[in-house]
Amino acid sequence: MNRTIITVVGKDAVGIIAKVCTYLAENQANILDISQTIVQEYFNMMMIVDLSKVGKSFEVLAGELADIGLSMGVQVKCQREEIFDKMHRI
Amino acid sequence: MINIYEVLETNQMIEQENLDVRTITMGISLLDCADADVDVLCRKIYDKITRLAKDLVKTGEDISKEYGIPIVNKRVSITPISLVGGAACHTPEDYVKVAHALDRAAKEVGINFLGGYSAVVSKGMTRSDELLIRSIPQALAETERICSSVNVGSTKTGINMDAVRLMGEIVLETARRTKEKDSLGCAKLVVLCNAPDDNPFMAGAFHGVSEPDAVINVGVSGPGVVKHALSQIRGASFEVLCETIKRTAFKITRVGQLVAQEASRRLGVPFGIIDLSLAPTPAVGDSVAEILEEIGLERAGAPGTTAALALLNDQVKKGGVMASSYVGGLSGAFIPVSEDQGMIDAVECGALTLEKLEAMTCVCSVGLDMIAIPGDTPATTISGIIADEAAIGMVNQKTTAVRIIPVIGKTVGDTVEFGGLLGYAPVMPVNAFGCDAFVGRVGRIPAPIHSFKN
To answer: Which chain B residues contact residue A7 at CB under 8 A?
Structure first.
C-alpha cells in the first residue's frame, strides 16, 4: 500500500471532483476515502488514495494533478500520508 | 484515519505560517583524509565530500516534493579542520588552500554552506589550531560557502583567554578583509563555548570527533506556527500558554523526525539527531520576537523578555523531546538580530539593546547572534564581549556563541544589508569603556567548581 493524500482547495466549481477522479482512474490510483468541507467559502476536498498500481512516478503524478487543478483555478496537492500521521498521531 | 481538518491544519502551517525543515546537514568525518602533503590532503577531502554528499541535495528536494514540506537548506559539516590539517599545513596559507578545496566541494554538491573550518581550543591551542585560526580572515574573504567556528571554552575546561584575545583580532581582521561586502565574512564566523558535536545549524556546525564516519542531522523550524497558535489563546493562563507551545513544538518536531528518517534511509547514512530549534527568518511572521510579543510583551527587549524567552525555550524542548527519538545540537530558540524582523524592529525602536540580548542568551540558545556593531570597535572590546558570553555558557553548562559583525566604515544609525536568509541589521551601540588590561592577561579562566562532578 502506498497511501497518498490529495487535497483540492479553491473556489467551488462544477466538475472538480469528476476531473480529478477521472485522472486517478485512468492511472490506476484507487480512492480509499474522500471527504469535503467548505471553509470560508472555499471548497476543500481530501482524498486518501492508494498509488501502488500507478505506473508513473510520484513526481509526475503530482505535477499532472497540479496542472489539472490550475486549469480549473484550484490548487491540487499530493503528499505522502506519513507527514499527517506523524504530526497528528502519537 | 487522518481527517480533513488535520490535513488542512498541516497545510495551513506550511503555506501560511512558514513551517519548514530548516536544514538537512550531513556530517562527514575527514579524519581519514589526513596526509603530510597539502595537495594530497585537499584532493582526499574533495573526493570524500563529493562522494558522500553527491545525492544530498537531490534527496532533500525529492523528500520535499513527496511530503509537500519545504526543506530550506541542504548542508555539510565536517571534522574541525585543524584536526585534519595538522601534518600538511605549515602556514596559514596552507589552510587557505584547504578552504578553497572545501569551497569547490561545496559548490560541486550544490550546498550553500559547509561548516567545520574550525578549531576546538577550549583549554589550549596546538600549533595547527593557531595556524588555522590565523588563516580564517583570508579563508572567509576568498571563499563563498565556508563557515568557520572556534570553540574557546567549556564548563569542563574553563575559558582559554589566549584564544579569546586572538579571536577579537580575528573577527576584526575578517571584517576588514570583507569590508566591500559590509564585512559579510563575520556572518560566517562564530566563537563558541560548549559547542556541541552534532549541531546542524550554520555557522557553528562541525562534525565532532565523537561522531561516526557520516551522519544525518536535521534542524527544524517554525516560529510562525508557534506565533499563530498563541494568537488563538490570547489572555489565557500560563498553563494554557505552555501547553499550546508544547503541542505545537511536538507537531513541528515530528515533521523533522520524519524528514530525518527518510533522508537517512535514502542516503544510506545513519540518523544522528533532531535539533529542536525555533530558527527565525527575515520573513514577516517567521519571527521569535513576534512570539515574545504574542506572549505579552510590547516589544522584544521590554522587561519580562528574559522570563518569556526562558518559558518559550523550555516548552519547545518539552514538546519536542517526545516527538523525536534523538535530540541534540543546539535545541532552543534562536535570537539572531538580522535574521528576525521582530528583533530588527525592536532594535530600531530602542526596545532592545546589546546588554538585554546578553541577558536573553542566559536562558536560550545560542548567544549574541548576527549583531552589527560599529567598525571602529576595538579588538579588545570584541574579546571582552566573547569572554562574557563564554562565561555565561561555562557557568550555566550551555552552549553560547558570539557572531558579531563589526561593520567597517559604518557606525550607530547605519543599516547593513547581508542579503538572503542573513537579512539586514541596524548597527548597535557598544559600551565604550575599555577592558584592555583584563583581556591582555595571558592564560585561562579555570573551570567552575560545579564542573567537578566525578
So the answer is: 7-8, 11
